[in-house]
Amino acid sequence: MRKLLLGIVIILLGTCTTYAQQQATISGKIDSLKNNKLFLYRKDLIGTMTFSVDTIAVLADGSFNKTISLSEAAYCTLTSTEKGKFGVTRTQLFLAPGYELKITGKAKFGTLYLDNVSFSGIGADANTYLQQKQQQFFFNSTDFYSIRFVSMLGGFKGKNAEGENYSLLQKGNTQAFLQQPKVYNDTVTKYYSAQRVMLNEFAKKADAKYFDDFKKAELAAINYGEADAKLMYESQHNDYAKHMKIEEVQVDKDWYGFLTPAIVRSEANEIAAEPYRLFMVNYYNYLVGKKDSNAETTWTGVCGDIVRASSLFEKNEAYKRTITKEQFAEVEALLSKSLAVATKSSLFEPVKKQLLSLREYLNEFGAGKVAYNFNAIDINGKPIKLSDYKGKVVYMDVWASWCKPCVGEIPFGRTLEEKYKDRKDIIFITVSIDKKTDDWKSGLQKNNPAGTPLYVEGAFGGLFAKSYGINSIPRFVIIDKNGKFIDANAPRPSATQAIEAALNKALGI
Fold first, then answer.
1. Is 80 exceeded by the pLDDT of residue 19?
2. In which domain, by residue range, is 316 found?
3. pLDDT at 143
4. What positions does the domain Thioredoxin occupy (predicted)?
5. Considering 348, 366, 384, which residue would you say is the last residue of a domain?
């Protein structure tokens, strides 16, 4: 449920404020930029992975000039990398209709953000503030890890993270979940109080004509970021504590005292801030989890639409690649119920698109569908097909030697295989999607994964990956004795109880 990583490095959101002008201009020059394009991402109101994108042409000298259609203010990210991936060069922006923002900076290889960035023109104050906030409170701050990773790790546990992101998650572990309530609460209060002080001090010297609307949105980001950090602490801490087999916590009765009716508002400038939306959705899910009748009556108007549509979006994301007919019927019914009370039904369009995608997935990879009879090779170069394992339950681990989360699952995989070593009706296989066989073989020697090691060509763009719907790893798949899917996105070996239950059911134990 928790998907805050993009909220940290790609804070992008539209608002509901009406402006006389319907466009903004950004121009400037970025030295040492290797790309001839920049991409401006604006976060959609619904979901955490959907964007609108403007492509900006960059001349040979690094200069650019782009007029953008913009009816509402928006937090954005300007990046040199397409499709929202983590690029070498990016910077956070706040744009509003009427802005004429000029940007200068230098692309520095190996760093996340523009070096020596500066702003001028209309909108410079808001963006200068964002740069200073980024430097002071994000990656240069230990408190950043202590707070933000509580939410982030909840979203990534059991999912996929690679490279830099995975390392950051690991760094956040001990600084987030292992904190006790008082220490954590003090950290949260200190962290967000300092942000409020910085914002108020900056506002004193900024041009109020262009800064005031931004200040309202930014204050909402701070206030609701703090509320969300406190709301999610107990459940996320204890969820992780169970996984790590460490002591759980129980907060006192006053912990949730901030959850008063007044906290639920739907001001346009507040809707602009992603932390506001995240908090509202998490608060809604919190009440739903407690079976509180207020969950359906607290949120009204556009705010209610955003909350319900986002909650459905997240539910569909959780079902992605594992959807059953029963779950599909559930989300269809919830969508119909939400649309019946919607103020702005267009906000549910991303959910409708998800359902179409889920239906396609269900038709192709759902339980009982025939799995693709892949062509692979074993360590000796011998051709292997899925059909070679007919009569056995197949537990397939799709991995690559460069994938840290994949390697992290290997010890659990060996333990799992050992538990079933006496059974002749199950086989464990590891299928590498490394680009080169040499990398695969080197990875085998270094990591010694469980099961029969196999290799397929094509990496993520190959027929194997496409035929199994694989666009991220590690991925685990259970196939029955007749070559049909049981679960195309099965539990990981580290989810001991879940995977043993799934395999036992497949084996009829």
1. no
2. 299-366
3. 57
4. 365-508
5. 366
